Amino acid sequence: MEQTVRFWVLIDHEVKKLTLSSGIPSTVEELVAAVKEHFSIPTDISLQYKDEEFDDFFTLTSTNELKDKCTLKVVYAPLALTLTVVPQESTPDVSDVSSLGECSSLSVNSVDTDILSPSPSERQSPWPAVFPIPTFSHNTELALRQGNEIYLRDGTTMTSPSVKSDILERLAEAMFSYTAYPNDAQRCAVAETLVAKHPCLKEPGSFNGIYGWQQSLKYKCGNYRTKWKALGSTELLINSLRNKSNDERKAAKNVKKPKRAEVNYLPSHPHAETDDTLENLRLDLIAARLTKDSVRSTNDMMARTYSWRRQEVVARSPDVAEFKERWPALFEPFQVNEEFRRCTAVPLEATFMSQLDKHTPKLLELFSAKGGATGQHIKNLMMELIQVGQK
Fold first, then answer.
1. Is the same domain home to 342 and 265?
2. Fewer Cβ neighbours under 10 Å: the N or C end of the chain?
3. Could you tell me which InterPro entries the record lists for this protein (predicted)?
4. Contact residues for 237 (Cβ-Cβ < 8 A; gap 6+)
């Protein structure tokens, strides 16, 4: 007689129990069928299991990895989407034009300063200091308005699975517009801002009122990444097992994620562009540097080949000498500023100068307090600067 097994099953933000009297199924397909039948799930799903060693979820490929009281997570199959590209008139990026005009390397007045707007696949801004809570569906907004009024009147919180599901979906979509891998601090900030705007969502049984929201956002963002990975997101496909070397084919090993300031870590290619077309464009880019109209054409092609360059950096990690040989234009002062803006969505030179102005008074105090020969040398230099400034 088979031994009865029990599983904890995570379905969206709910935790349920599954009991199988016939024991662990021999195949993953049989287990998926049992989960769909038990919880009445009509759509296609896949399963992930929680690995005790890594304390994280991995795709279930064999039921041999399961045991009694193991935790499973239901991942819904992505919906089939048909995307229609509608041509639009491009508008010049004002920040790009101004930065081009301020660049000292562009002293020729006849240079055309039109610069391509960021690709639609690129994110436009870094993670905000205060996360903007998106507008939810009409029914959800009405329910929240009524729930907030009740909470302010008698302190009763609102519990509605449909409202919570819509909130989590919209929040995950909004968070993905800034990063595909939000960390604990970012999820906590989103939950705090959500509860501050809608106090009826505060959790009465939680030690801080938002812990359940943090965990729900963690699982929802994981499901959202799974959907976008199936749709071909380059930033997520880079971490798939088939794109890893044989000695690194573990889901938790060598995960490539953006650093703190990187916004467009690994964007997809622009529409209608492929690896071959962008490689040909790279060769044209080298030849364009020798032409009279090199500034405008170089910046155009550098913007279009940004995704191809990032694939080289992230996937291959080439040596600096090799990378400089393939992308010589990138090491020009103006393109250093532009590449920084493409990657972080922040202007490098303007940001540096503004921060320098902000900290200059404190730096001057430190220089004035310095003693000894070094301090005297600094004072002499500062006196020279003052005299130059007075002329």
1. yes
2. C
3. PB1_dom
4. 229, 243
Q: Which two tokens stand for residue 372?
A: 């000894």
Residue 84 backbone dihedrals phi, psi, to 5 degrees:
-110, 125
Tell me if 277 sits within 8 A of 319, measured CB to CB. Answer: no
pLDDT of residue 292: 59
Statement to judge: residues 182 and 201 lie in one domain: yes
d(CA 17, CA 19): 7
- Rounded to the nearest 5 degrees, what angle is found at the Cα of 10, between the Cα atoms of 7 and 14? 120
Q: Residue 71: phi, psi to the nearest 5? A: -100, 125
Do 149 and 108 lie in one domain? The reply is: no
Query: 10 φ, ψ to 5°?
Result: -95, 120
pLDDT the model gives residue 119? 54
pLDDT at site 214: 94
Given its phi and psi angles, is residue 48 left (phi above 0), alpha (psi -120 to 50 degrees) or beta? beta
pLDDT of residue 279: 94
Q: Are residues 172 and 316 in the same domain?
A: no
User: Other C-beta atoms within 10 Å of 353: how many?
Assistant: 11
Residue entry with tokens 């650093």: 259
Does residue 318 share a domain with residue 267? yes
CA 377 to centroid of chain Cα atoms: 47
Structure tokens at 14: 């709910």
Give the position of tokens 């003052």. Answer: 386
Domain containing residue 204? 138-220
CB 262 within 8 A of CB 344: yes
Q: How far is CA 115 from CA 10, 47, 95, 338, in A?
A: 48, 46, 10, 10
* DSSP letters for 102-136: H-TT---TT-----PPPPTTS--S---SS--PPP-
List the Cα angle 327/329/333 in 5-degree steps: 130
Partners of residue 50 on adjacent β-strands: 57
